Amino acid sequence: MTRNSMAFWTGAAVFLAAVFVMTQVVGNQYPFFAGYVILQFIALAVAWSILGGYAGYVNFGTSAFYGVGVYSSVFLVKAFGAPLPLQILAAAAIGALMGLALGVLTLRMQGIFFSIATIALTIIIETAITNWRYVGGAAGIQIQRPPVTAPFENYVQMLFFVQALLVVLAVAISRYIQNSWIGRGLQALRDDELAAECTGVPTLRLRLLACVISGALLCAVGAPAAMYLQYADPGSAFNLNYSVTTLAMSLIGGTAHWSGPIIGAILLGTTQQLLTVTISSEVNVLVLGLMLVLFVVGAPQGIIGLVGRLRGKKEGGA
Amino acid sequence: MTSSDAPAPLLRISALTKRFGGFTALSNVSVDIRPGERFGLIGPNGSGKTTLINCISGVFRTEPGTVLFGGEDVTPLQPHQRTRRGISRSFQIPRPFRSMTVAENLMVALDFAAHEHVSVGQRQDSMMSILTQMGLGSKANVSAASLSQVELRKMELARAMATHPKLLISDEAMAGLSSSEVDEVLDLLLSLAGRDITIIMIEHIMQAVMRFSERVMCLDAGRIIALGTPTEVMADRRVQEAYLGT
Amino acid sequence: MFSLDLLLDAVVIGVLLGCFYGAVSLGLSVSFGLLDVPHVAHPAFLVLASYAVYFLNEHYAVDPLVAGLLITPVFFVFGLAAYRLYYETFEKRGSDAGVRGIAFFFGVAFIIEVLIILQFGVDQRSVTADYVGKAWRFGDFRIPYRLLVAFAVATVLTVLLTLYLSKTFMGRAIRAVAQDEVALRLMGADPLKVKQWAFGIATAVLGIAGALLIIVAPVDPILDRAYIGRTFCVVVMAGLGSMSGTLVAAIILGVAESIVLTLFGASWAPAISFAMLLGVLAVRPQGLFGRRS
């Protein structure tokens, strides 16, 4: 293990330990409710970046994956009373299959056409779920939480910890990809697909791999949301806001480095949570729109890019 | 030069045809290229040179026609598979990986195309030695997007070299360069050829082709109109007509 | 039960609806089809126009169509400004403009949605006019006047825009800019100016289209999301930048939606346009009547 990896895994362990201690010590429920949402967005943004950032295929279907994650849990709970870990695993498996389907789309379309196709995919799946009576149809469905297992005293606290685990998993995978030959290959195909292919990069296989990994993670992150809200309806589970928020977080943070989406998600996620509490959820969407426009126009490489440029200048000056 | 006990060809193109809709870009092209040969490919614009390269490197599918490389039929293989077998190319308009440094550009080739079981350290060494050889040693950590035209051409060749090719196809690597730069690139190609790498060179600059090639093939409207030593091909009336457009 | 009458009814309504979809897609056919701008905020601009029409109708009792005409020049200028901003930040910088462009326009769409919510609330809004709410009866047929008005205006609008693009100098320049920028320079026109003008026209058309939108049915602030599917479906199916193709594609979509609505009910309707869009992208990305891939 390199020194870098040591630092990373130590950080991850400290983070999980802190989250765990928090669930044991803090009595107030609100921090867990808000914190869960932020953790969820960190995981979504990191997972999204594997395809959208590294490979440059901008997926607007985050809501499709997220929604399918939610509804696969709904189905499993209603049909079999499946426990949470199984819900998450099943969602990941379904997400991987969806990712594969998305990967096949990349065969036929690139750039903006791919992006538009992913929006289309979202609405089509949402409509199908809306017409599926068993999981509640358009009106939605109530979900009963099972009793919480020790050492947690409250279900939301447990979900908070589970989501923290998913964050660590997503970040670890994303970091591994970036530092390995997979990351270099994805970067090459993002820059120039033909040149990559002629340099020996199996572009199709890598694209499929990125789609499958990203899809599995996005779906897995959505799975616990059914239990979190104790309710699901297609309109909210497949809301386009998830797609745009996730994309915005990644772009704001910067997609050149695995830490970019984390920074973006913490920044935007926290701001949104504060605004929702203090003003309203509309303003929160307004801030999303404004930040997206500002960063895309003013800092196309995100915060990571800004920091890099500042450092470059300093070094250049010295 | 040729004799009955000549080695098996490294590349054998047989009856290759390529159509785009109703337009026939290549028509029944067959040619053998020997291991270690320096082969020049000429022809007027639109004569099918780049199409032929695209068929050899796998960018285009051929129908009908086969490409044999080292005795193996590579016709059904995708470009990256052919690259791993040892067919490497540069592009007429350079296509660097712009978000990477020069060193990283080469690392892509070393990661994906070079032979397995090579340690990271060995790859680094290999990369530096190729860069030095190409005269890009000082540019290793420079962003590929900031290179000059001649540097880009050299980097394309360096990246192609990093795949450890048996066959290197250089597609107009000298276009748009000054005469001293042309000589520089030509010397590079000659030095590579001295190392048992077979090279196909597409070029418009006749002087360079004449100096470089052992054999020259001239395409016109998708057909081979001449194939032989540079002097023979230059003396061919049909070649002169094709170039002068009479 | 399914009957021939019902089907015929669905087809007639579908054709009328289709012409209306054509009208709301015309602008996108210019901006995305001819100029390659990934304008996902097009439907948000459309809904914004509807609210402007609503405002004029509600407070000054202006007829919706007249209101649509009144806001057209404002939208034209708005379009000029929007393109300038887009050009300065994306086209000029080159690479991966498309991808960041689409993110940009999504941001813009969200901002418009929220501004409408803050100003008008989340409830549905509609306009009042003589032709809204009444229907033309012919035997068993019942065709709402609002659809007939939308159909008539949409047809006129399509014809006018087609004539503009084929007969006037500027119109021909706009078509040329999509195909061959160099030829355009040789004609002595500045491609940037032409594109900016074209985007202005594309946005101006939305004034009328927005009036039609609120005439046909009540609008709400996030109605734009449903129209992302419809407008992009029409433009992509038409083959980027073909005006007559836009009308035909829109009619195909209208009829398809109307038939599905009749046979399977409203809950399947939102997916029709997106499914057709996905199908066209996957099978024939150059569109049905396309001029290029």
Please report the distance between the alpha carbons of the first and last residues of chain A. Answer: 33 Å
- What is the CA-based Rg of chain C, rounded? 19 Å
How many runs of DSSP E, i.e. beta strands of chain C? 2
Helical/strand content category of chain A: mainly alpha
Could you give the order of strands across the largest sheet of chain A? 1-2
Rg of chain A, Cα atoms, Å: 19 Å
The poorly predicted ranges of chain A are none
The percent range for helix content of chain A is over 70%
What is the C-level CATH assignment of chain A? Mainly Alpha
Shape of chain C: globular
First CA to last CA of chain C: what distance?
Answer: 43 Å
Largest beta sheet: strand ordering of chain C: 1-2
| Beta-strand content bin of chain C | under 5%
Do you know the CATH architecture of chain A?
Orthogonal Bundle
Main beta-sheet annotation of chain A: 2 strands, antiparallel
* Mass-distribution shape of chain A: globular
Mean of pLDDT of chain A: 91
Number of strands of chain A: 2
Describe the structure.
Chain A has 318 residues and is mostly helical. In chain A, 79% of the residues lie in helices and 1% in strands. Chain A has helices at 3-25, 30-54, 62-80, 84-108, 111-130, 155-179, 181-191, 193-198, 203-222, 225-229, 234-237, 240-253, 259-278, 281-298, 302-317, and strands at 141-142, 231-232. A two-stranded antiparallel sheet of chain A has the order 1-2. In chain A, helix 2 (30-54) packs antiparallel against helix 13 (259-278) and helix 12 crosses helix 13 (259-278). The mean pLDDT of chain A is 91. With 246 residues, chain B is of the alpha/beta class. In chain B, strand 1 and strand 2 form a beta hairpin. Helices cover 74% and strands 3% of the residues of chain C. The chains are: A mainly alpha (318), B alpha/beta (246), C mainly alpha (293). The interface between A and C is large, with 42 and 39 residues.
Task: Offer a few descriptive terms.
heterotrimer, A: 318 residues, mainly alpha, ABC transporter involved in vitamin B12 uptake, BtuC, two-stranded antiparallel sheet, 15 helices, 2 strands, 79% helix, 1% strand, globular, C: 293 residues, two-stranded antiparallel ribbon, 11 helices
In short:
Chain B is of the alpha/beta class and 246 residues long.
